[in-house]
Amino acid sequence: MATGEFTSVKSQNELVASEVEVERTALANNPREELEELATFFVDMGVTQELADQVAKQINKSPEEALKVHTSQELGVDTSELPSPLQAALLSFISFAIGALVPLLPYLLGATALWLSLAVTAVALAITGGAVARLTSRPIVQGALRQVGLAVLAAGVTYAVGRGIGTRIS
Ligand SMILES: [Zn+2]
């Protein structure tokens, strides 16, 4: 999971980097069109054409700044704030390690009932789902229920597939 996260963020960053290169070439080859484009970004924001032209000309004096505005407007990314693949992988690794440990907790504490393990897991999932919803300003209860629902679905599919394969082997 962590390696998947690493590859996913890394390839996304590489995609952005190649788009930035395309934009850099466009800026070098069609400076006039790109200057006009720069001005239209500001017109779209509600700035008058005259002021937009002035702002665009000033920004254009620094090619790197102009490139930044183009990429953030056209690609919707801030190239100075790309996510770190390593950080994403580490976060994913830690959260999966903690996630895998939660169902085992009751057993580690001496309990033997499966339902207790399931209940603890459901509570942990509801808390993380709710926390993620809170961080992304979505309804908390909905986020908590969705997390538990998805886990039940994933567990059900895993169980069904396991049973299916198990009966065929035995
Ligand atoms: Zn452009």
Description:
The protein is mostly helical and 170 residues long. It folds into two domains: 2-81, no CATH class; 87-169, no CATH class. It contains eight helices and no strands. The chain has helices spanning 2-29, 31-44, 49-60, 63-74, 85-101, 105-108, 114-135, 140-169. The longest helix has 30 residues, at 140-169. The protein is elongated, with a radius of gyration of 25 Å. 10% of the residues are buried. It binds zinc ion (ZN). Zinc ion is lined by residues 23, 26, 34, 37, 70, 74.
What layout of secondary structure does this protein have?
Elements: H1 2-29, H2 31-44, H3 49-60, H4 63-74, H5 85-101, H6 105-108, H7 114-135, H8 140-169
Bound molecules: zinc ion (ZN).
The structure class reads mainly alpha
The distinct ligands, each listed once, are: zinc ion
The biggest beta sheet, please? Answer: none
Mean pLDDT across all amino acids = 86
Shape: elongated
In total, the number of domains comes to 2
Uncertain parts: none
Relative helix content: over 70%
Radius of gyration: 25 Å
In total, the number of strands is: 0
- Total of helices: 8
Write down the oligomeric state: single chain
N-to-C series of helices and strands:
HHHHHHHH
Strand content is: under 5%
Distance between the termini: 31 Å
